[in-house]
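User: Design a sequence. Structure:
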């Protein structure tokens, strides 16, 4: 019975490691291949978050310790809560700084901020 639990755990950890590695590699490829800053940021924030979360979950399950598993789940929750927000804020700041979309983009839905004239 103990060997069956070990086998199921090993298979689950292996599947999580493979899936997390695939998402992480796809995020890295997205950073290299996507045409502009905004699509690269999308790849890093979405696929990178899922990849690192799955790898953390695999490490937590492999440890056979509930405290380590809870820390891994807390780390995954932190990634899920912070990565999309930070990517959104960075993309908004980049757009306001003047970074343009690629020519492949159909429309720019975020209007350029109006320049304030300073009176000094």
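Assistant: Done.
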């Amino acid at each position: 019975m103990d060997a069956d639990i070990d086998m199921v755990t090993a298979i689950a950890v292996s599947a999580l490691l493979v899936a997390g590695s695939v998402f992480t590699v796809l995020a890295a490829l997205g950073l290299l291949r996507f045409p502009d800053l905004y699509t690269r940021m999308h790849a890093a924030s979405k696929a990178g978050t899922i990849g690192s979360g799955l790898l953390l979950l695999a490490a937590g399950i492999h440890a056979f310790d509930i405290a380590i598993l809870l820390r891994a789940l807390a780390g995954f929750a932190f990634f899920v809560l912070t990565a999309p927000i930070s990517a959104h804020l960075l993309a908004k700041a980049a757009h306001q700084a003047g970074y343009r979309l690629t020519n492949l983009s159909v429309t720019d839905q975020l209007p350029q901020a109006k320049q304030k004239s300073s009176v000094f």
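The chain has a mean pLDDT of 88. The two ends are 80 Å apart (CA to CA).
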